[in-house]
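User: quick one
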Amino acid sequence: MLSNAPSNAWYPLTWSRNVERKLSRHKVLGIDLVVYRTEAGQPVAMDDVCPHRLAPLSLGKLKDDAIQCGYHGMTFGSDGRCIRVPGQPQIPASAKVTSYPLRERMGLVWIWPGDPARADTGQIYDLPQYHSKQWHSAEGDALSIDANYLNLADNLCDPAHVSFVHLSTLGSAASEDIPVEHTASDDRVVVWRWIRNSPAIPLFAKYGNFKGPVDRWHYYHYTAPCIAVIDFGSSDAALAIDPDQRDDGMRIFACHFITPVDEHHCIDHWLHVRNFALDDLNVDQRLHDDFRVAFNEDKDILEEIDRVERARPDAKRIRLAIDAAPQKMRRIVDHMIAGNSPSPIAAE
Amino acid sequence: MLSNAPSNAWYPLTWSRNVERKLSRHKVLGIDLVVYRTEAGQPVAMDDVCPHRLAPLSLGKLKDDAIQCGYHGMTFGSDGRCIRVPGQPQIPASAKVTSYPLRERMGLVWIWPGDPARADTGQIYDLPQYHSKQWHSAEGDALSIDANYLNLADNLCDPAHVSFVHLSTLGSAASEDIPVEHTASDDRVVVWRWIRNSPAIPLFAKYGNFKGPVDRWHYYHYTAPCIAVIDFGSSDAALAIDPDQRDDGMRIFACHFITPVDEHHCIDHWLHVRNFALDDLNVDQRLHDDFRVAFNEDKDILEEIDRVERARPDAKRIRLAIDAAPQKMRRIVDHMIAGNSPSPIAAE
Amino acid sequence: MLSNAPSNAWYPLTWSRNVERKLSRHKVLGIDLVVYRTEAGQPVAMDDVCPHRLAPLSLGKLKDDAIQCGYHGMTFGSDGRCIRVPGQPQIPASAKVTSYPLRERMGLVWIWPGDPARADTGQIYDLPQYHSKQWHSAEGDALSIDANYLNLADNLCDPAHVSFVHLSTLGSAASEDIPVEHTASDDRVVVWRWIRNSPAIPLFAKYGNFKGPVDRWHYYHYTAPCIAVIDFGSSDAALAIDPDQRDDGMRIFACHFITPVDEHHCIDHWLHVRNFALDDLNVDQRLHDDFRVAFNEDKDILEEIDRVERARPDAKRIRLAIDAAPQKMRRIVDHMIAGNSPSPIAAE
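Assistant: Done. Structure below.
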């Protein structure tokens, strides 16, 4: 298990499109999983290890809705219970593997690695605009990053880095010194800043039709432990819109659904939802290309930081004003982890 | 040294064909060895490290029957004793490297890594049919497997896996539920099963000329710690042969001589001895091709299990009926290892 | 930090030619460094880590003589002090990185990783002939070796290995049994031997014009902890020169300036200074090619020894007569390291 990820939470496992009528391998919170879809279409994920000789079940065969181990044929139903032991009539009572609660939402399969009794599907994140006809959503990639998932979460609670990391796509030097604001609640952090009366950033300059300066915003909505939805956009500065009029501008929700793979790896499943060029699939691809450039810029930095953190486990860090929101994010996650402990802590 | 291999035992070091008048490198039980053949044709193996500066002797030169270190020219005879130190007349008394008892048999060089005083060449395994004119033997490969040698030994005390792992070559689903029988003695385990009145497996269907169903057998003869000889074959089911009439059918001994390289690597030196198509070298190659497919199927599974065992050192395993023979095999090896300890245990 | 390298010493960091008006990465004594040259031409090296989030500063940008971190724009002057924090007016007092004393000499940038107050540039090694018009110097390579730097220093206090390792270039079997002599002082070791009336070695046979046998010499001048200058040459044996007449023969200083990178890596920055063929640049290249062959022969052995030392951390070594000088070298280094401790040891 991962030391800094709460087990009682929903995590993205993989894109729904990747779960088929065949066995595939995934890893979440350090747990190796074999994943497939039942004949009725339900996704299944269970520990990818046969309890007999520890062969990965993913080397076996899908037999109807069950998995037959590729070494000696022990067979496990989708609930993880053994239903056959070749060569002996009696099935040992302990012969089962852990099968995990799953649910599909927003194009992803979500997994609850913790106590199944606490798996409330109502807690899975949803973005209303994803389902709206006034908006268009486009599925992106699964970007693998060699870094702990919380370092990516730091990055996604942090509009300030955009002015330095993403100059060719999402940011501009004009915003370097504009402070960020934030609020935090039990399981959420929102961080934002407005850059008023400024040139359009490269991305909107490309797709918008702005004659002059714009007002632009970034709202980073983090939901613990693994979701960040970045609401950003631009509006003609001459209109001087209020924050609650963002739908009047060009607006994009860039959704990041993070899979903590293990201590030093995570996967950023990203998609975007926008309120312009709804029917133009070319814009999907052109935006995806821009996002790929930008998110790989983050990946480069996060992987280098991971390397330094491994080499300098005792390194101290200086706290800056822009760190307030990421630090609250980490406190929320710590609290969720503590809530997972079996000690008598009051229910959240 | 390897934690789970007895040092007082004969192990295959490499094929005799690989030991020449030049220095080569091998590793057995975690010991790096430099290997060569004397002018008189005797194989030599000694620790591959010069006691002066720890340079591998295999980087040096063969000078008659001695090795001259490639760094400063210290020279060691085939018994490991230093015979020259360039630049100084006196040879330090401690200047020697360990040279190991070796012996050639069945096309392999065998090594005794333990106490030389206990190295009884009478204990080296031999298969009488290998030397008989009624049989034909064909040397196979040295298959490197990234797994502990005892996991391969498990596999070679286990006919049950054949029905699931080797469907294209050695097994068929017809035998999935047929139980296995076994006997065990001080240093041996025999595991077997008969599958009566069943279609010929792919390998015998290819080389035999059976009109109808066959009786087929597998006898797995394990000799601790590193030898498994699999006697398998088929006979026309209409003949209903007794077990002691196996020579009347098509019969193959598939010999596996396992070199434990280190905790997570072993080498399967395999050959086969058969009682049909004695003069047809094409059959050698066609059988080898089939064996290569089959043994690589085992390799794939064993390497995945090794990976899982490293990741889950505390994993529990469920014991099935088919595990009785492998478990006895491991008890025999544990007993051999205990016998190696310097404590006053009665001689074996 | 490296366990067996004194921090209060000058080390070669890299060739001066590699330090430009852009950020580059280097590692010395286990310290990751970002290196560049100021507008005024001064080399700068500082810890390659931003104290905010631990991003390597080498991912950032050079802004005049300062580095702007590539993640959030914290900016550090060439002395390591933070001069800007975007988004907040106040700079935390602790916001600085370590900048190291540097100095250029003999075509290299030298670094003092220890206490800056003790960095005496007068201690940096210099070879008078390097600056003389009667001599010609030619810069070589930066040979990366996967071995601890002291094992390379052993090699460079050890003329005896030449007879066995460098037969095609620098040595010949004729010298195998000729003993070496040495002297040692506080921070130096000199080891030498003369081989009188012997065939010219391949290198001098190629460039000299000797009709008959030569007298040849090797003087290995080691200066702790990381410098070895090998004075070697040949003179017509008929002249029977005295040791102080070496300039009358063909004479080369092969300079090795060793950078300890970490416990298992070092870089040999080598150049040569010669008293013949002063204006013939072809001889530079032909000598370099020969040196490359020879130094790679050392590299091969040292890397194999490093591998063995890792595998056998408790291995004992036999001491030979030729080890007297390397052992004094190591005692000098140990003494330098002890002198770095904060305990009240008398000044050196």
